[in-house]
Amino acid sequence: MRVLLAGGAGYIGAHTALALIEHGHEVLVVDDFSNSCIDSIQRVEALSGATVTVIENDLSNLEASRVALAGHDFDAVIHLAGLKAVGESTEQPIRYYRTNIDSTLNLLEIMRERAVTKLVFSSSATVYGTPELLPLREDHPVGNNITNPYGWSKAMNEQIIRDVQAAWPELGAVLLRYFNPVGAHPSGQIGEDPSGVPSNLMPYVAQVAIGRRERLSVFGNDYPTDDGTGVRDYIHVMDLAEGHVAALEHLRDGVTAYNLGTGRGSSVLDLVSAFEQAVGIAIPYEIVAARAGDVAEAVADPSLAHAELGWTATRSLADACRDSWAWQSSNPNGYGA
Ligand code: UD1
After folding, report:
1. Any residues with Cβ below 6 Å from ligand 1, and which?
2. In a domain, 223, yes or no
3. 223 CA: nearest ligand 1 atom
4. Residue nearest to ligand 1 atom 30, measured at CA
5. CB-CB neighbours of 269 under 10 Å
6. 151 part of a folded domain
7. Which one of 16, 154, 222, 274 is most buried, counting C-beta atoms within 10 A?
8. Which residues are catalytic?
9. Whose CA is nearest to atom 18 of ligand 1?
């Protein structure tokens, strides 16, 4: 298939581009490079030997997007274009809603105009809000106590896609609810390159290991979990990338949501010790106050994706730590450094 990968130069986008190419698909990236750079795609090309067409365009501008995409044909869209920093979203809600909602509306409008009927959307386990029952299944209610505009933008996008599909039955869409993506391609050539101080755990740990940060702050140790620290379902980004390929290749009529997770929960301290063991570097940490908006535990039931997409996460947390380190140690300051 010829796949339009919206937001394809970002962390998940670059890994997904590589997985698509490895499965014989053609990739066309559209990205505004507001939080990414062309180097990631150049490295995907070097790793795969394939050529990736890149269009620089802001998808939240409908007219510009129509023009930018006019000369390009594609059979499906994987939509990963969006802003994703939770804290920033509470400070800049208008920017977050404009970017994350308008880009989806515009992509859907252009898809409809051009009769492109396959969509895979990058959603998040954050749409479940505070989990009522673990592990999380796709039929868990959405929108229960979401604490920030970023999270709401994901839940709203899911609803927009459902409403558009109801009015346009030819559209087949998949909502991929990511748990916590970590790791990198094992080559260490592509990886997560956060701007400023990382807000997510794994890149922070990797920056402590390389000496860019002194110590990790562990956000709270009195959650009702085994060691008191927050528990998450960390999924290797290459497993996540392959989940997009499986979703695309098994796309059915209507709208279907799938969890992309491993089904295994790890605490903050589990991740720290997995990293220390995999990499052989001690990670100093201190316990600080819990972060507002964090839940105690979020773990996927990934069985639906297994049953319907034939997809399962195969890589371990140790693999993810090793690969994060391969990326961090060979690119201490990220891309372009
Ligand atoms: C966060 C977002 C989520 C988003 C996801 C991917 C929040 C509340 N949730 O998920 O909406 O989809 O990132 O970008 O921000 N931790 C520390 N110290 C740190 C960083 C994190 O102890 O410096 C802990 C957290 O408290 C949590 C775990 O590590 O228990 C994972 O945190 P993080 O990587 O930020 O992911 P989430 O909060 O699960």
Report:
1. 84, 86, 124, 126, 151, 180, 199-201, 204, 216-219, 230, 232, 268, 291, 293-294
2. no
3. 30
4. 230
5. 18
6. yes
7. 16
8. 150
9. 218
Query: What range defines the domain where residue 81 resides?
Result: 2-184+235-262+300-313
Nearest to 101 by CA among 160, 148, 36: 160
Centre of ligand 1 to C-alpha 198, Å, is 10
Pairing outcome for strands 231-232 and 297-298: parallel
Q: What is the pTM of this model?
A: 0.98
> Strands, E, within the chain: which ranges?
2-6, 26-31, 53-56, 76-79, 118-124, 172-178, 180-182, 216-219, 231-232, 234-236, 254-260, 266-267, 285-288, 297-298
Domain count, the chain: 1
Output the pLDDT for position 190. 98
pLDDT reading at 336 higher than 80: no
pLDDT tens sequence across 288-318: 999 999 999 999 999 999 999 999 999 999 9
Residue 298 CA: which ligand 1 atom is closest? 39
Identify the pLDDT of residue 195.
87
Give the tens place of pLDDT for each residue, 101-160. 999 999 999 999 999 999 999 999 999 999 999 999 999 999 999 999 999 999 999 999
Q: Is the pLDDT of residue 56 over 90?
A: yes
Residue with tokens 């039931």: 301
Question: Of ligand 1's atoms, which has the minimum distance to the CA of residue 230?
Answer: 30
* Within-domain flag for 158: yes
The reply to whether 61 falls in a domain is yes
Residue 337, pLDDT score: 62
- Which residue minimizes the CA distance to atom 35 of ligand 1? 200
Residue 242's domain is classified under what CATH number?
A: 3.40.50.720
